[in-house]
Amino acid sequence: MAEEKLDVVGCGSMVVDMFYRTPRIIRADEKILLRAHAASAAIERTQVGGLVLNHLGWGRILGLKTGIFGKMGDDRNGEFLRDGMDRLGIRHHLTFDGTASAFANIFVDAAGDRAIYMARGATGELTPAEVRSRHGAFIRRANLVSTEISQLPIRTVLAILLFARTHSIATILDVDVPPSDAIGSLGTRAELERALKLATWLKPSKAAAREIVAGNGRDTLKMAEAIRARYGNRAVIITEGDKGCSIAARDTSVRVPAFKVKQIDSTGAGDAFLAGIFAGLRLGMPWDKTGRLANAAGAVAVTRLGAFPSGFEVREEVLDLYGESIALPTPHLDSEPREAAIGDSTGEVEKFFDLALAELAALRGGLNIAAISRTVEIIRTALGRGGRVHVTGVGKPEHVARYAASLFCSVGTPATFLHATETLHGSLGQVHPRDIVIAISNSGNTDELLSTASAIREQGAQLIAITGNKDSALAQLADLVILVPVPNEGGGLGLVPRISVLGEVFVLAGLSVALELAHGLTVEEYSRWHRAGAIGEAARRLAETRASRRRA
User: How many Cα neighbours within 13 Å face the side chain of 62?
Assistant: First the structure.
């Protein structure tokens, strides 16, 4: 069955927000009493939050199919965040190997202004390699990819933008912090500049926009136009809080005034605003109407405490404030699958298949074909001087080694399985100095295999390593290394050798193709070696057909 397409997939901050009421936002060296009915009630509300998760939540309110990917901790905060995603039907493609899920302490004063102290935790630990290998299949389901300059490393943001561009997916980049805050803590100036240029649409905050244009101008529309001219984005959208927004696009430049509402908490305004931009793009609305819808969503957001939408009832508030008929999609929860529950393996199995395909694709992209060709040369040279080929491994690679030896024999390269531990108890006599030994180990640091590899080298035989670790002890011992890096195994624990074994088989099967061609294997030979079974019968029929054609 085809994967469900998603309107927007995002990556960035997913945060447990803890809200505190304060009479005012204090300065350094000041103290103040929080507003609470009792000391135990200082935290007024704990809520799902985070810039990216917020705008995906508001996107759901506006009828879009949204999803989020990234990293969080295997902790209670992570469970809390996922429960919030599930309530609105936000798809999630997450790993739980981060140090801790992100949280924020938010202090809101009587006017609705706020100060936020964030601990980004696992959000900031997502690497560029994980974007491709772990989440590539999920990203490809999106019509639009959203990310941010706020908590993610800029190198990871670049990986997201580049992956989306490679797969012809439009992107929107929310520049939530000024460059002076991002450079150093999140990445370099060069990385930031490249990210700004790669994004299809840019949404910088007003403070970020001022720094980007290197001026203190107050005209946000001129700033938007200058940024778009510099980076070539389709549009640049700058929010101005209670003044509205300015949009500079290819075909128009427009100011859109804000709606007048009573502000309770400004925390989620920009996030809800961005969801309105998503919806306008999804419906193909002109920029003035898109900006008006975004302003309506932002205005509704500030009338309540917290940034994440409480439920679908606020959708009508947004539409009422917008004031015009609009054909927003209607979100349906009951008919849409949730994340697999404990005991339901379907979701996890699907994730495993997606991850396996992504890991193998990443492996193929970085595979050194020249190393495989060199292996063939070494093997053919050894066979020519009377040497033999042995294949060995410990644990799951032992079974791979048995398969590889059998496979090589079937295509014309005689090979035997070498039992690694038995080698240390007398079977080393099986190995001659003229021989080649192929040793398989994902980590390259398995003690039993290293002892065997050292004995093989002392015996004078050549050693070829197939490993996922270029810095391993096995790689240091080997005459030639074929790297098979597979960082993620998939499955519940992420520890069981699964995808690394697939990678080893993948590479050894490719090596067998090269050996078959080097040997010049004919169908007549192949049919003689396969005296039974369906493959043997098919080979004999093919050999007979070719012989008949030659006689004719």
Answer: 35
> Given the DSSP bridges, would you call strands 102-108 and 114-119 parallel, antiparallel or unpaired?
antiparallel
15 phi and psi angles, rounded to 5 deg: -135, 135
With b meaning 16 or more CB within 10 Å and e meaning fewer, what string describes 285-313? bebeebbbbbbbbbbbbbeebbbbbeebe
CA–CA gap between residue 125 and residue 485 (Å, rounded): 20
- Give, in degrees to the nearest 5, the angle at Cα 526 between 520 and 530: 160
Strands 389-393 and 436-441 turn out to be: parallel
Give the model confidence (pLDDT) of 178-189 as tens digits: 999 999 989 999
Cβ 9 vs Cβ 68: under 8 Å: yes
pLDDT tens profile 396-439 = 999 999 999 999 998 889 999 999 888 888 888 889 999 999 99
The CA-atom distances, in angstroms, between 283 and each of 9, 63, 146, 202, 293 are: 17, 11, 17, 19, 11
Taking CB atoms within 8 Å and a gap of at least 24, the contacts of 79-86 are: 80/16, 80/46, 80/48, 81/14, 81/15, 81/16, 81/48, 81/50, 81/53, 82/339, 84/47, 84/48, 84/53, 84/57, 84/308, 85/48, 85/53, 85/57, 86/338, 86/339
> What's the half-sphere exposure (Cβ side, CA atoms, 13 Å) at 531?
0
Each residue of 193-250: pLDDT tens digit? 999 999 999 999 999 999 998 865 679 999 999 999 999 999 999 998 888 999 999 8
Quick one: tokens of 331?
Answer: 């979100």
Collect all residues with Cβ–Cβ distance below 8 Å to 211 and sequence separation of at least 6.
178, 179, 180
The neighbouring-strand residues paired with 246 are 238, 255
Residue 5: both structure tokens together: 């397409």
| Residue 236, burial from CB neighbour count under 10 angstroms (0-12, 13-18, 19+) | buried
Of 127, 130, 62, which Cα lies nearest the Cα of 90?
A: 62
**Strand runs labelled E in 134-244:** 142-149, 170-175, 201-204, 235-239
| Integer-rounded Cα radius of gyration of the chain | 30
d(CA 131, CA 33): 44
